[in-house]
Amino acid sequence: MRKGMVFALVLALAFMAGGCRNEVRTVPEPPPQAPGETETATEGEPTVVAPLTGQVVTVPASHRAVMAMVNNAPKARPQSGLDKADIVYEVLAEGDITRFAAIYHSQAPDVIGPVRSIRPYYIELGAGFDAVMVHAGGSPDALAQLREGGYAHLDEIHNPRYFWRDASRKAPHNLYTDLTRIRRAMADKGYPDVGKLPRLPFVDDPRQDPVGVPARKVEIRYMATYRCGYEYDAARQVYKRFTQGKPHRDRTTGEQLAAVNVIVLEAKHRVLDAAGRREIDLAGPGRAYVFQRGVMQAATWKRVDGVLRVYGEDGAEIPLYPGNTWVNIVPDAPGLTASVRYE
After folding, report:
1. Is 6 among the domain residues?
2. What residue spans carry the region label Disordered (predicted)?
3. What is the 3-state secondary structure of the chain?
């Protein structure tokens, strides 16, 4: 009897061991990765949608935007870093030359510049993004507005250690910085690195093309001596940028600048003084053209929640396609129709 019980116990233990061995060998493999998933989720870096471009990125969505004033005088071209801006505004400064207000959030160029001075209407643009504004001096009205409004800003005149001069160019067209220096300055000055970003609308289905009239080539005349333009590249679904009839390239990369969305709007301009400083009405409303995927839509614009927004004939805000956006602001005289040609 005792021998039989021992034998049965040995058999039971052997069976259990074999069962455990079988379980180890037959552990099911993980299910296949679902379409659209990326390995970043398993690496602890979940993807997020950049609020100013609508593109999936792996950077913090809450960190603060930066607006840099970038020179567009002939001796300042080609510039560096405009290719990495989420949004670029091109607006007249003094004379017949425009200046760029480049909004950085989802990408970080190696170099930004040449950096130039600021004006009140550029401050209005930057304030809509709660951006830290980077500049080299400014008009008396702009400097007073920055000071009295308590805006977060970085002025090279008083903070040269966060900038550098390029010896291959002459001042004032040789001042540069980068986001590493800018964010270091923000920390030194106690500026929060978390900002309040606006909500921008993006198309529900990027595979759907916009409805409008053909516009594969766009020319914008600001003044008699300055013009810029865009040509649509259907393969890349972007508008390649031109300045004075030549490809507008980034100095650092050598690549031609391009935009997914191009908006041209007219605003009231008024010359204030003998130096040619201007007052520009960025409240609106006014007329606008929206260029996307080789098509133009006529629109109206107005500033809502601090941001210039465009609206279709039905009154709904026109959504953007995922990617960067360039906004060209032209004077109301001679106006949008006379300043912009497209075909």
Report:
1. no
2. 25-45
3. CHHHHHHHHHHHHHHHHHHHHHHHHCCCCCCCCCCCCCHHHCCCCCCEECCCCCCEECCCCCECCEEEEECCCHHHCCCECHHHCCEEEEEECCCCCEEEEEEECCCCCCCEECECCECHHHHHHHHCCCCEEEECCECHHHHHHHHHHCCCEEECCCCHHHCEECCCCCCCCCEEECHHHHHHHHHHHCCCCECCCCCCCECCCCCCCCCCEECCEEEEEEECCEEEEEEEECCCCEEEEEECCEECECCCCCCECEECEEEEEEECEEECCCCCCEEECCCCCEEEEEEECCEEEEEEEEEECCEEEEECCCCCECCECCCCEEEEEEECCCCHHHHEEEC
Assess whether 239 and 182 both reside in one domain: no
Are 125 and 241 found together in one domain?
Answer: no
Domain extent, residue 261, equals: 213-342
- Do 300 and 338 lie in one domain? The reply is yes
pLDDT by residue (tens digit) across 290-309? Answer: 999 999 999 999 999 999 99
26-75: pLDDT as tens digits: 333 333 322 223 333 335 566 789 999 999 987 666 789 999 999 999 99
Q: Tell me: the pLDDT tens digits for 231-245?
A: 999 999 999 999 999
* 263/49: higher pLDDT: 263
Same domain for 119 and 79: yes
Residue 269's domain is classified under what CATH number?
3.50.90.10
